[in-house]
Design goal:
mainly beta; four-stranded mixed sheet; 1 helix; 47% strand
Length: 161
């Protein structure tokens, strides 16, 4: 009799813990899309030792500058692979987000790449009060953007010299 009671208490305890953890979950919108990688093709290493990233107000047609930064080893990682160098923006305060327009300027070659009209697909993800502290943020996937007036599908920035 005592063993049955102990078993029932353990079962009810496990059941209540399970209900508690699963009932506090809810769906939330993912954050606006972002691009962290810029691929630069046919540039020499000396060409891309200075890359200026300018952030503009989204509806200003590149006339209202919000801020700018120089991409370097302290905020980005450079990975040469054949004729293309991938620049990964590691500092999240400089990632390219759908909420702004951007200009990438490479002074050594006088290259200007303007990124605008970024479109991301709204997604949702499950957030649980207890377990969300270990889960990273969810970002909407970028479906298209305009690079120097040309519509690009997907979220990969590829700039040729």
């Amino acid at each position: 009799m005592i063993n049955n009671f102990s078993y029932i208490v353990k079962y009810l305890f496990c059941l209540s813990i399970t209900i508690f953890f699963t009932s506090c979950c809810k769906e939330k919108d993912c954050l606006p899309g972002q691009i962290r990688k810029i691929s630069l093709a046919f540039y020499r290493t000396s060409d891309i030792d200075t890359i200026v990233l300018k952030r503009f107000s989204k509806t200003s047609n590149f006339s209202i500058l919000i801020d700018s930064t120089i991409l370097n080893n302290s905020n980005s990682n450079f990975y040469p692979n054949g004729d293309t160098t991938a620049v990964y923006i590691s500092d999240t305060s400089f990632t390219i987000r759908t909420t702004y327009d951007y200009e990438i300027y490479i002074p050594a070659t006088n290259t200007v790449a303007r990124i605008s009209k970024m479109i991301d697909q709204q997604k949702k993800h499950q957030v649980c009060t207890v377990c969300d502290c270990v889960q990273g943020p969810c970002y909407n996937p970028i479906t298209s953007f305009t690079l120097n007036g040309q519509i690009i599908s997907g979220g990969d920035i590829y700039i040729k010299k």
